[in-house]
Amino acid sequence: MRIILLRRRPTIEFFSICRLFFTLPVQQPEVTKEGSSLVMAAPTSFGAGPTETFPVHSKQASAEINGNQTEVVCSSYEDYIFLIVTQYMKIGTLIRLSPENVIDSQRNPFVSSKVLLGKDEPMTHVLAKNIQLSMSTSKPVLLSLAMKDTSRETLTEVIKLVQQCKVWS
């Protein structure tokens, strides 16, 4: 795995994150100037032929939870699910969640979590594993988590938002 140190850049573009964590080639969107504003158009074809469709399926949902505006964006790639859950409108901590083939004594599935970028705190792992277990998917999940409120009520509402953005099977 490559480790890239990003300095002097306050933000990381979405396409840079895709290139960093996924092996799928990512096409840059076309940018056109229309009037006084810039318009970005997502690519409509992928690969060699014009009949192929763009392989990334995304959904987005937002709600106000306990006074905090919460955004959820879920994108399904061939071998990963990229999920953004934010109340700060920033990427936040990146966590890789991998379902294991191990089942504990109470028949609960085991999920391994590893913080890739950001602060490694126990509450981050608790929130991440609860979100991943609610998804019921065998694909690994790359979760971006930036939460102001980490209460149980907030987690329950976030899980409902994640279910609205279901792009996995």
Topology:
Blueprint: H1 14-21, E1 30-34, E2 37-41, E3 57-65, E4 68-76, E5 81-86, E6 93-103, E7 109-117, H2 122-135, E8 141-146, H3 152-164
Parallel strand pairs: 5-8
Antiparallel strand pairs: 1-2, 3-4, 4-5, 6-7, 6-8
Helix pairs in contact: 2-3
Structure description:
The chain has 169 residues and is an alpha+beta fold. It has 2 domains: 12-55, no CATH class; 57-169, Ribosomal Protein S5, domain 2 (2-Layer Sandwich). Helices cover 21% and strands 36% of the residues. It is built from 3 helices and 8 strands; from the N terminus they run αβββββββαβα. The protein has helices at 14-21, 122-135, 152-164; strands at residues 30-34, 37-41, 57-65, 68-76, 81-86, 93-103, 109-117, 141-146. The protein has a 6-stranded mixed β-sheet, covered by helices on one side. It has a two-stranded antiparallel ribbon with strand order 1-2. A hairpin with a 2-residue loop joins strand 3 and strand 4 (68-76). Helix 2 (122-135) packs parallel to helix 3 (152-164). The two termini are 28 Å apart.
